[in-house]
Amino acid sequence: MRILALDTTTGSGSAALLEDTRLVVEINSRSPSSHSARLLKSIDHMLELASWQIKDIEGYAVAAGPGSFTGIRIGLSTIKALAFASGRPVAPVSTLAALALKLKDAGGRLLCPILDAKKGEVYGALYASDGGELEEIIRQGAYAPDALFSRLPAHRVISFLGSGVDVYGDKVRAYLRDKARFSDRSPFIAREVGVLGYRLLSQKKGIRGEALEPIYYRRSQAEGKK
């Protein structure tokens, strides 16, 4: 199955083409202000590199959040348009689950993806991996950092990845000391979004583009002012 996967939920945006779970092409960018300007150009460039046409895409995968409200909307609106035009199914994927998969592929057993949610909060979760499927131990959500980190098993080695590490790394160390592991893997996750998306699409669990909904976990600033 040929899949187009996108992630624009953070400042580290990426797009990828996959053949089932095999990465064919990936383009990464750390320019959050230009996600919308570069996205369609990146897709066209990837298709050219792969010698594919847009009509060859059999399914779409997109990081639906959590993350930047603006970034989420950019990714979802792009995929909605492509899916509507093609009639192909879409697999919405959690940004946190994709980050956890990246940690799992690096050999981690307990995995804690954390994103800076601003306003003194993080988006986070805790996953366990024994080499098979990811198991969610602490459910995904928006947390006060202390509320999340205090729930982590301090006697176990835990791997971390995500923008929240840059902001709250010292607080993590205060709770876990030498049990905290900060991954040096890149934050780009289009490939992982595609892998998780393929699992859904191959099980006929894809949805129509117009049914796509963002994963927010809290109201946007604009909604909060209403």
List keywords for this structure.
single chain, five-stranded mixed β-sheet, globular, Nucleotidyltransferase, domain 5, alpha/beta, 2 domains
Biggest sheet strand line-up:
3-2-1-4-5
**3D shape:** globular
Main beta-sheet strand count, sense and barrel state: 5 strands, mixed
- Distinct helical segment count: 7
How many discrete domains? 2
Assign the CATH class of the largest domain: Alpha Beta
The H/E string reads EEEHEHEHEEEHEHEHH
Corresponding CATH architecture of the largest domain: 2-Layer Sandwich
Low-confidence stretches: 220-226
Protein model, in words:
The protein is an alpha/beta fold. It folds into two domains: 2-95 and 187-224, Nucleotidyltransferase, domain 5; 96-182, Nucleotidyltransferase, domain 5 (2-Layer Sandwich). Helix content is 35%, strand content 29%. The protein is built from seven helices and ten strands. The chain has helices at 35-50, 69-86, 95-105, 145-149, 164-176, 190-202, 221-224, and strands at residues 2-7, 13-19, 22-29, 59-65, 90-94, 110-118, 121-128, 135-143, 158-161, 180-182. It has a five-stranded mixed sheet with strand order 3-2-1-4-5, sandwiched between helices. Helix 3 crosses helix 6. The longest helix has 18 residues, at 69-86.
Topology:
Elements: E1 2-7, E2 13-19, E3 22-29, H1 35-50, E4 59-65, H2 69-86, E5 90-94, H3 95-105, E6 110-118, E7 121-128, E8 135-143, H4 145-149, E9 158-161, H5 164-176, E10 180-182, H6 190-202, H7 221-224
Parallel strand pairs: 1-4, 4-5, 6-9, 9-10
Antiparallel strand pairs: 1-2, 2-3, 6-7, 7-8
Helix pairs in contact: 1-2, 3-6
